[in-house]
Amino acid sequence: MDRVALKYGSEFNWEIKVKMMGRPGKKGAEMAVELMKLPITPDEFLVEMGVHKDELFATAKLLPGAERLVRHLKNHNISIAVASGSATKDYKTKTTNHGDFFKLFPIIILGDNPDIKHGKPAPDQFILTSSKFPDSPKPENVLVFEDSPNGVLAAKAAGMGVVLVPDSRLDHSLYHEPTHFLSSLEDFQPEQFGLPPYDS
User: Fold this and answer.
1) What is the pLDDT of residues 43-74, one digit of tens each?
2) 144 and which of 85, 136, 162, 180 could share a cystine (Cβ 3.0–4.6 Å)?
3) Residue 180 pLDDT greater than 90, yes or no
4) Angle (nearest 5°) at CA 15 between 11 and 17
5) How far apart are CA 110 and CA 105, in angstroms?
């Protein structure tokens, strides 16, 4: 977003990023245009962003500790899913270099899914994702991993536990009281949440 903001003499700063994290496509675009006071429409913003996203998202990396955790849960037959606010096109670009990893997830619900009426911080996406699990878990038995304040609010609104792994720049006042927060997924201890511990 820096590139689009600079083009129009505006600025994409950390405060704006925090407000937009987890917001799906059109809603996020509307917020971006408003917050950065851009002289373009949300649709025009999405077109311009699309050019830059293709270049930048293709270099996305997994968070440290993510692969170990996911493979551990998979090996112990714990139901797992992806519930991302990203649109399908962006998701495919971000996961370009991680195809084998994302094949581990039997359920992937993205932000442009037509059954999601309201994006995060509304609970719709997590409720829909949970409904796809074969064991139909109660909300209190679902644990969400999030990196955004809007995601924490969405998980809590769905009645689910949530572990926040925030950017180090995120102010603590915006954590919104998650069940737990970590500086890195590498610090996650499954047994603290009733899950099988990592093999030593």
Assistant:
1) 887 877 766 666 667 778 899 999 999 999 99
2) 162
3) yes
4) 75
5) 13
